[in-house]
Design goal:
With about 60 residues, this protein is mostly helical. The chain has a single domain (about 1-64), classed as Arc Repressor Mutant, subunit A. It is built from three helices and two strands; from the N terminus they run E-E-H-H-H. The protein has helices spanning about 10-20, 25-30, 40-64, and strands at about 1-5, 10. Strands 1-2 form a two-stranded antiparallel sheet. Strand 1 and strand 2 (about 10) form a beta hairpin. Helix 1 (about 10-20) crosses helix 3. The radius of gyration is 12 Å and the shape is elongated. The structure holds FE2/S2 (inorganic) cluster. The site of FE2/S2 (inorganic) cluster has 11 residues, from loops. FE2/S2 (inorganic) cluster binds next to loops.
């Protein structure tokens, strides 16, 4: 699913970069997401945040 239509950035692109430890700013630099019309930034941040939260929950579940 495309998140950034201007640069063709997908949800998977954002999720994979987040899993590798990228910040929102690093994702913007790598894919240029949000650097044209900017309409996608809320969704880029949302996918990044959701992916990070999922990582934290998984770590807590493994530690328990
Ligand atoms: S949709 Fe991402 S910059 Fe336009």
């Amino acid at each position: 699913m495309y998140i950034c239509l201007c640069y063709g950035v997908t949800r998977d692109d954002i999720q994979q970069s987040t899993l590798r430890g990228a910040s929102v700013e690093e994702i913007q630099d790598k894919f240029k997401a949000g650097k044209c019309c900017g309409c996608c930034m809320d969704e880029v941040k949302s996918v990044h945040c959701h992916t990070k939260n999922t990582m934290c929950v998984n770590k807590l579940q493994k530690a328990a």
